[in-house]
Design goal:
heterodimer, A: mainly alpha, globular, B: alpha+beta, four-stranded antiparallel sheet, 7 helices, 4 strands, 48% helix
């Protein structure tokens, strides 16, 4: 096989041992075709309980109002916006893996792309809950969010970052959903033809849109896939930039900084890759896929994690430097207050989890061991949540007027919403693992040794 | 369900993409029009061997993207500067810089919808039936085999000659392509 230039892993190293297309099918479709394992049921029970907590918290919020949250006067954006940015950020790794690494011809993306894309979809669903509920009356929210006139004929103000956010996040969700589904079509077709029972065959037949593997269709399909990758790449960068504009376009010290868009994008990729690793390590163990999603994959993801960890570390330092260099006392106070004020613990948790501990990944042994890297990866998830908490809450809790200073503490509903959103995410993820092929089978098959005609390889 | 079948063409089944590629070239050169290759995954360059033109979806996507852009300009500028001008902090009414995010997002959104729709239309999806199902070959083709299907409706099609062409092109497994004769076509 010719070594493809620019790819970190050439095809033979992608798999731990030689594998045939048939074995691949058997391996990947097995969890969707057999009765779920005991582990799956246990996981489903736990996440189901968490989902129930979500339902109760949302119910409480809707019945009583957002006064049930810990938000107070200077801290108008508490956990809700923290959680929103956290979940949207997690989604970004999926698009990065599926689109940007596709355009960069990184073949190792194939093993993890489907899973990461799915994570994107579900993370964005979780993210959307928070701003919608934060509007207070979500059933009326469409009148405020969508370009729909109010009773005086006034349309939304399109100069507002919050209006941009509506467009950005909904475009992101819909585009990712279509990109993801396009990838699933051939795999549903394979599942359809493996199905033994008639009902299953019919359902999968509908889901596969009647795909029959015609090469005249593949020509269009591949072009469309490339286009989706090309569209998603600037899209994913724009989405988190626009999310950061929610903060940066304001005049609040600690928010009003030009570094926010790239800083947010780097942070999103960072937290997203950590989340992909967190879940995929469990997944490959659960479904015996360690030979398809190998330690090589984990190592490469860890390299991205180190790079983005340094990027966010640089952003933390640069924010601080610019606050001093600007000579603006409010700006300086905001940053010193972050480090030493009432939320010092949140700031230092963020720094240690995001910048200090990930440096351990420089050690090859840790980078390649699922067990050793796991605590670091978990800490990154925690640290990135704290980053959003620090940005949102510490910038708000000290207003210009000391008389309006306050301290934000979450209520039980806040905690329920956050824990519950994990329940929503994990439940969706578990259902996905049960019913959908978790690896993009058709794409992997195209990369197996001898899968392509000899002349076709670019030497 | 009746088991009555009629022949609608011939199909060559292949194990090796190299052989399929060469066979596709031969079938193309023989001047067939109504034929296709069915593969479990895209085979690089097979469209050249088949003489299939490049996809034109990108032009549609681009057209849609610019429609999205125009829609966004109309939506933002039209509503905020013309239909119901809102003075926000004394800024210019048509402050286009602030409308760029919406323009970009609708640019992408329109393009994405069109691309997805084009996949459905040009890949000829939502057609639940294919003779490969009735011939009992689809499961193999969706797993690890390749099929070259020549339709009997092709002008050049002559059963024996077409079979021989496939055999000469290196296919060791040439079969008749069968289709169920039934009025109530099922989903698959």
């Amino acid at each position: 096989m010719s070594k493809t230039a620019g790819s970190l892993l050439s095809p033979p190293e992608l798999f731990e041992r030689p594998i045939t297309a048939k074995e691949l099918d058997d391996n990947i479709y097995l969890p969707t075709e057999s009765f779920p394992t005991k582990t799956w049921w246990i996981a489903m029970t736990i996440s189901g309980i968490m989902l129930l907590i979500f339902g109760l918290s949302v119910g409480h919020t809707i019945m009583v109002g957002i006064g049930t949250w810990g938000n107070n006067n200077p801290v108008g954006w508490g956990w809700a916006i923290t959680n929103f940015v956290f979940w949207v950020g997690i989604g970004h790794a999926g698009t990065l893996i599926s689109a940007i690494l596709f355009l960069l011809r990184q073949k190792w993306r194939t093993g993890i792309a489907r899973f990461a894309e799915t994570m994107t979809i579900f993370a964005v669903i979780c993210a959307l809950q928070f701003p919608l509920l934060h509007t207070g009356r979500p059933w009326l929210a469409m009148f405020w969010l969508l370009p729909y006139p109010n009773d005086q004929g006034i349309y939304p103000n399109f100069r507002s970052p919050l209006a941009w956010d509506v467009f950005a996040v909904s475009t992101y969700f819909l585009t990712s959903l279509m990109f993801w589904y396009t990838g699933l079509i051939p795999d549903f077709a394979t599942a359809r033809d493996r199905a033994k029972n008639k009902f299953r065959k019919a359902v999968l037949g509908v889901l596969s849109f009647g795909w029959n593997g015609s090469h005249r269709a593949w020509v269009h399909y591949e072009k469309a896939y490339l286009l989706f990758a090309g569209l998603s790449t600037p899209l994913v960068l724009s989405v988190h930039s626009i999310v950061s504009f929610d903060f940066a376009v304001s005049v609040i010290p600690g928010w009003h900084t030009t570094i926010f868009p790239p800083y947010f994008v780097a942070g999103a990729v960072f937290s997203g890759f950590a989340m992909v690793s967190t879940l995929i390590i469990i997944l490959r163990k659960m479904f015996n896929m360690s030979h398809i999603i190998t330690d090589n994959h984990l190592e490469l993801m860890n390299k991205v994690v180190i790079v983005t960890s340094m990027l966010v570390g640089y952003a933390y330092a640069m924010e601080f430097f610019i606050a001093w260099y600007s000579g603006v006392v409010y700006e300086q106070f905001a940053f010193i207050n972050r480090m030493t004020g009432p939320y010092w613990w949140a700031y230092w948790s963020m720094v240690f989890c995001n910048v200090v501990f990930p440096q351990l990944l420089w050690i090859k042994k840790i980078r390649r061991s699922a067990v050793l890297m796991y605590p670091i990866i978990i800490l990154i998830n925690v640290g990135m949540w704290f980053e959003r908490f620090v940005i949102t809450v510490t910038s708000l809790h000290r207003d210009y007027l000391p008389s309006s200073w306050d301290y934000f503490s979450p209520t039980i509903t806040d905690i329920g919403m956050f824990v519950g959103s994990w329940g929503l995410f994990l439940t969706l993820m578990l259902l996905f693992c049960r019913f959908f092929p978790v690896v993009a089978v058709a794409e992997i098959k195209a990369q197996l040794p001898n899968a392509q005609p000899d002349h076709g390889g670019h030497h | 369900m009746s088991n009555e079948q009629k022949q609608v063409g011939v199909v060559g089944v292949f194990d090796d993409p190299n052989v399929l590629y060469k066979a596709a070239e031969k079938v193309r050169d023989a001047g067939y029009q109504k034929w296709d290759c069915h593969t479990p995954y895209p085979i690089h360059g097979l469209e050249k061997a088949m003489g299939v033109k490049d996809s034109f979806i990108p032009y549609l996507t681009m057209g849609a993207a610019f429609c999205g852009l125009i829609t966004a300009i109309t939506l933002t500028g039209g509503l905020n500067a013309w239909y119901y001008p809102i003075n926000i902090g004394g800024k210019a009414l048509f402050s286009w810089q602030a409308f760029v995010p919406v323009m970009f997002e609708l640019f992408v959104l329109f393009a994405a919808f069109t691309t997805f729709g084009s996949v459905i239309v040009f890949c000829k999806l939502f057609r639940w039936h294919h003779p490969l199902h009735d011939s009992g070959l689809m499961a193999d083709v969706m797993c690890d085999k390749f099929a070259l299907v020549i339709n009997a409706e092709d002008d050049k099609y002559k059963e024996e000659a077409t079979k021989r062409l496939l055999e000469k092109a290196g296919c060791s497994d040439v079969r008749p392509l069968m289709e169920n004769v039934e009025e109530d076509g099922g989903l698959v």
